[in-house]
Amino acid sequence: MAFEVQPWSSTTHATHNMEQISGPPARTGTCYQTPRSHPWRPTMGYEAVQVTPLHEQPITNALVASSYSPSAMCCDPVTFPNLVTGFERNPQHAARAALYTRYTPNEWTTSNVTTFAEADKNRNYAEKVRSEAVRLMRETDEKTSQGQRDAARRLGERITDITFWRNELTTELEKLIAESAQLTDTKRNVQKALQDLEPPLHIAQECLYHREGRKSIELVHDHVEKSLLVEVDNLRSCQEKLSQLLARITKQLADCRAAQHSLEDDISHKESALGIDSLCHQLNNYSRGINYYGGIEKYDPTVSTPGTWSGSSSTRINNSHSERSKSCQLRSDAESLINAVATSVWDCWSNTNNAFNNRSSEMLEAKSKMQLHLHKTQQEIFDVEKHIELLRKAVNDKSNPMKVAQTRLEARAHRPGIEMCRDNAHLRLVEEVCTIQDSVATLHRKLQEAEAQHQQLLKTKSQLENNLKLKVDALFIDREKCMGLRRSFPVNNTIKY
């Protein structure tokens, strides 16, 4: 019959300290076997006495009676010698031997009494031995049963303790796994929030890049540019905070996994120990697979005491509880930081958009005024041009009266003799010529002034048109390019604003 191997025999390294037993293990009852063929017979003192054989005598014809020998025997039968007649050659010796080997009746009686007393004594002693043996058997049986029951009770208590700590560890492991799952979700949220900061940062930097395309006087360090710079700084600061938080969450997840591995390892060990102790608790005297293991009681494989054993599990549970507390606090911090970042980003986004709207309104108003001034300037240019034409016409109109007055003076200069009189007519013609000359000179000055102002108006018109073009370009950059990128908030996550 093959011997069953116990579940702990392959894991217990007791081969070096246990007694070496050669050959197959001893079977039950081997130690109770006796060297006799009938073990139910009592062991007496005479059985240990070595029997000495009688003195050998050669068989002769003188010792064989022919009347008792069978006819078919080829040799004579054996006869026992007679103490009186067995020695034919020396009858005196035989008589003396018979006289000396006789006992008296008193000796015979004394011998019988002694034999009876010895028999009574041996029987009494045997009865005492039997009663002590029965008592010893009962005591040993009771002690063995009590020890076995106490060991079973202790095993039951141990199973209860292991089950309690196993349940505590399992409960803590479930809580830790749930907390790790929540922290993993929080990590994904933080990663998504970190990714969601890239579009606003890219848009803010793109707006700054587009606004660098403004020219001349429109390159103003206005409130929009300040808001964009503040928004970029805020987004980079939020990215740094989220990155640090993500590193903390990653480290905390590693700590949680270490605590989880410790709990799983302890639970696995306790499951194995619980199975072994349950099997040991179920063993009895009639179980299969029980066997002798010589010297196993001298081998001490233990590495802990009940105090350190329970303390180890308690330490693992406390460590897991501490990691869960840190994880819960980290989740709360992450949620607060994500909401704070979202609020900050949204506020900066709104402030920048409001600055863009205000700047666009200012630029629209400035554009409208510029267009109005341009229209007025163009009208004034038209009026000045008409006035210049009138001045030129007025100058031209003075040519005929000048010709008439000068012709009259030239004609009167041909008067003869005394007729060359400085009369009132001559004085008036001279005055008329001087007046016309003064008027023409005045008209020429006005014409030059009008032409100069006309050139100035043309220059102003050019400046107004140039400024209007710059404002149109700047307005296109702010309203179309920048505000076109900022029409919708690019952050799309689970944060409630």
UniProtKB/TrEMBL annotation:
Residue ranges for the region (Disordered) are 1-38, 305-324
Q: Which UniProt keywords apply?
A: Cell projection, Cilium, Coiled coil, Cytoplasm, Flagellum
Q: Where is the signal peptide?
A: none
UniProt key word Cytoplasm: yes
| Segments of skewed composition (Polar residues) | 7-20
UniProt lists compositionally biased (Low complexity) regions at 305-315
A GO cellular component annotated for this chain's UniProt record is: nucleus
The record ties this protein, via Pfam families, to: Tektin
* Localisation: Cytoplasm, Cytoskeleton, Cilium axoneme
One record GO biological process:
cilium movement involved in cell motility
Sections of the chain in a coiled coil = 166-193, 440-467
Top-rank taxon, per record: Eukaryota
Note whether Coiled coil occurs among the keywords: yes
The family line of this record is:
Belongs to the tektin family.
Listed PANTHER family: TEKTIN
What is this protein called in UniProt? Tektin
Origin species: Aedes aegypti
